[in-house]
Amino acid sequence: MNEHSKNLIISGTAAIPIVGGSISILIDKYIPSELEKRRNNLIEKFDNDIEAIKEEIKPGRLESEEYMTILFKVFKSAIEEHSQEKIKLFRAILKNSAICEYIVDPSIEFYIKLVNDLTITHFRFLKLVFRKEYFEFVHYFESTEFDKSFQDAFINDLLNMNLIAKDVLSPYIITSIGEKFIKFIELQQFEE
Question: What distance in Å separates the CA atoms of residue 156 and residue 179, rounded to the nearest whole number?
Fold first, then answer.
């Protein structure tokens, strides 16, 4: 954002009765410093992740246009995210994209979309289904203020994305796509 656009936005928000002044202060002072702090933190973590796997990275992979596209998409999403759990999932995508067999893989873009679109609750349920801990998930919903319709919505999202499927022997199972996704984003290490 150039300085002129920023000033127009700040002036416009300052004109809003009652809350405008507070919003303009947030835009002018807090947001730029918060974005810079997040950016620097992400760069440091991404750098550490890549350093830890540098021996496994194929020559030229990090400089390829395909990897740069993944890097830009992941970085943009991660910098906008407040959840440290989801940021770890984005970092796993970036790390595993650096060492996967084929960088031109439509599943990587699908994984980025899934991490963007799914909530922490989706990931918790997915992890519990992966571990076959269904009763823990039911208990999770019972211990929160979610009603049954929310539980159904979370489950339907995962069913519609083909990450889980209904099963005759257990309530749900992980699909092959779901299993690949879980491994790629390292969901097994997802913190509760």
Answer: 17
